Amino acid sequence: MAMLARRQLCPYQGRRPDATGCGGEKMEHSSKTAVTQRRRLTNSVSDRLSLVPSVHFPMATSEALAAHFGRFIDQTDGVAHSEELFDLLSAFALNFDCPWIAYHSLSGGPAIMPKYPDEWQQRYFEMGYDRIDPIIKMSRKRASAFRWSEVYNDIGTTEEERRLFDEAATCGLRSGISVPLHGSDASLAIMSFAQLGGCEFQNKTITYLQLAALHFHLKLENFADPIGFEKDPRLSSREKECILWTARGKSSREIGIILGITVNTVNFHIKSVFRKLDTSSRTVAAIKAINAGIIEL
After folding, report:
1. Where are the alpha helices (DSSP H) in the chain?
2. What pLDDT score was predicted for residue 23?
3. Which of the 8 DSSP states describes residue 179?
4. CA gap 128, 135 in Å, rounded
5. pTM for this structure?
6. Rounded to whole angstroms, how far apart are CA atoms 193 and 93?
7. Percent of residues, the chain, with pLDDT higher than 70
8. Which residue, 224, 180, 201, 208, is CA-closest to 290?
9. What is the DSSP string of 29-53?
10. Do 55 and 195 contact (CB within 8 A), yes or no?
11. Contact 246, 237 (CB under 8 A)
12. Shortest CA distance to 209 belongs to which of 101, 124, 121?
């Protein structure tokens, strides 16, 4: 804007107004023109900036997130219907700015429970996108949650698959994660969460959403098969510490540093927890320990 103003005033620099005042009129006219153009340029810039979507970055503390998760676990206790359970999970996801979630079972059970934009659901099924969905392909290979951006940028993702992401973005599904839910019988289900805006998911957000997704999945399985592990398995104090930090998203190395023990010792205790809780998954063990009241986040 400064360059524009100088160009407008330059012809009159060093000139004195003549006796008739014409020079003064020209300078006044030029000054008004410069101000008008500056205002137009400013308004143009303001208009462009107003088109940039605002992004909300949740700043919840770890304590607040743990409280939200604990409340979600308590609310699901005694729920006996998948729809009610899904609604509770949807409400929990809103704490992380995730209005869009979907559960997709590829091995029986509720085939799909979506809370996605209607426009995208209709297009997805009409176009048969389940045949080329890169999220499904990646979920078959992954054991833990992943960001959609990882799949989009993966060298194995085809241009056709990337176009699916691009189309989803036009319907509001820009930034998301998916949680593969593998069963011991080789079954597979997928839970996906999408945020408002385009910011990437924070690691702590992914940790809690993955735990919530697994809790939801285990509850669904329990509806069909109510027989589970013993109600109050006896875990040692060290086993409880190890599985607690596992639930908080820490690796064996990080847990070892926190507790002042070796990685091998951490793994020994976690394997013992696996045996007592009848699982071979850290995330499943963490959820079972939470559900049994053995640990609290």
Report:
1. 2-9, 22-50, 62-76, 82-93, 118-126, 134-141, 148-152, 159-170, 203-224, 237-247, 252-259, 263-277, 282-291
2. 41
3. E
4. 14
5. 0.67
6. 8
7. 75
8. 208
9. HHHHHHHHHHHHHHHHHHHHHHTSP
10. no
11. no
12. 101
Instruction: Please answer whether residues 183 and 107 qualify as being in contact, where contact means their C-beta atoms are separated by less than 8 angstroms.
Output: yes
Extract the residue ranges of the chain whose pLDDT is less than 50. Answer: 1-59, 227-229
Q: Which H helix or E strand runs over 182? A: strand 175-182
Beta pairing partners, 191: 103, 179
Kindly state the tokens that stand for 21. 């005042």
- CATH among 3.50.50.60, 3.30.450.80, 3.40.50.10610, 1.10.287.950 for 62-224: 3.30.450.80
User: Helix, strand, or coil here: 101?
Assistant: strand
Pairing of the two strands 175-182 and 146-147:
antiparallel
Q: Where are the domains of the chain?
A: 2-42, 62-224, 237-291
Neighbours of 87 (CB within 10 A): 15
Within a 10 A sphere around the Cβ of 34, how many other Cβ atoms? 17
CATH of 237-291, one of 1.20.120.1080, 2.40.50.90, 3.40.50.620, 1.10.10.10: 1.10.10.10
Q: Is 132 left (phi over 0), alpha (psi -120 to 50) or beta?
A: alpha
Q: How far apart are CA 229 and CA 233, in angstroms?
A: 8
pLDDT at 236: 85
Calculate the average pLDDT of the chain. Answer: 77
Find where tokens 């939200």 sit. 68
Report the pLDDT value the prediction gives residue 109, as an integer from 0 to 100: 57
Give 12-51 pLDDT, tens digit per residue.
233 333 333 334 443 344 444 444 443 443 333 233 222 2
Q: Tokens standing for 84?
A: 């009610």
User: What confidence score (pLDDT) does residue 60 get?
Assistant: 61
pLDDT on residue 26: 39
- Token pair 């088109």: residue: 51
Q: Distance (Å, rounded) from C-alpha 186 to C-alpha 107?
A: 9
